[in-house]
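Help: read this over?
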Amino acid sequence: MHFQWYPGHMTKAKRMMQENIKLVDLVIELVDARIPVSSRNPEIDDLGKNKAKMILLNKSDLAEDKWNDAWAEYFKKKGYSVVKVNSKKGGGIKSIQGVIQEACREKTERDRKRGILNRPVRAMVVGIPNVGKSTFINALAGKACTKTGNKPGVTKGKQWIRLNKSVELLDTPGILWPKFEDQTVGLRLALIGSIKDEILNVEELSMELIGFLKELYRGILKDKYQIEEMEDNFSCLKEIARSRHCLVKGSELDTEKAARMLLDDFRNGRLGKITLEFPYNYD
């Protein structure tokens, strides 16, 4: 499979971010805790040069705790402030404001010396599509101030959100980058739902997931779907279809329906806590 998705609105969104970066003190980048490196837009570091940087390992409840901790250490060593969050349920949200102030302490100190007091920290919230930016901002603000949706591309334009007198956030649309140099990155983004399913072959995608699960999470498919984990990935998919009665024309197996169900179960944590990439591959 070849993965690529860079619709026109992303070029416009990137331009908007470039224009607004000079207005902010801090870049808060949300990544998906299941794929913390693959879900980072490589253009963001360049965009946010000379700004304080913070990484939020979002959807941390869907990834393995031990790897969340390992990833937090990995990014801290690279100079980022890091918080593990679960925006949907509010996990980690309470600590964010303190970490924002800590990340911008030098800047606040400079302001104070120049006689500028009580100026709010301004932060740009960035991330790829479907990483949970809007859900995070709503959780942090304690009210529904941005639209949310479990599909890529819900946030269209920029909007400022005043959290309190000390923090203002600039929400931005989710953007990918024009070309994935490594197709494994594209595959992982497709698995978590950051590339539209409509442009993908979901059966092939689900077979990639089956292969990964058999290698690193042996027994998980057997427990969830009461099937034998067969050597051939397509045979596994057929077994899932049979077990869950995914049928067309009476008795023929509907493997596409089974594939969508498997991907949905993975994306929503119904298979358990699963991490797709590990810090030891990036040391």
Notes: The two ends are 27 Å apart (CA to CA). The mean pLDDT is 87. The chain has eleven helices and eight strands. Residues 202-216 form the longest helix (15 residues).
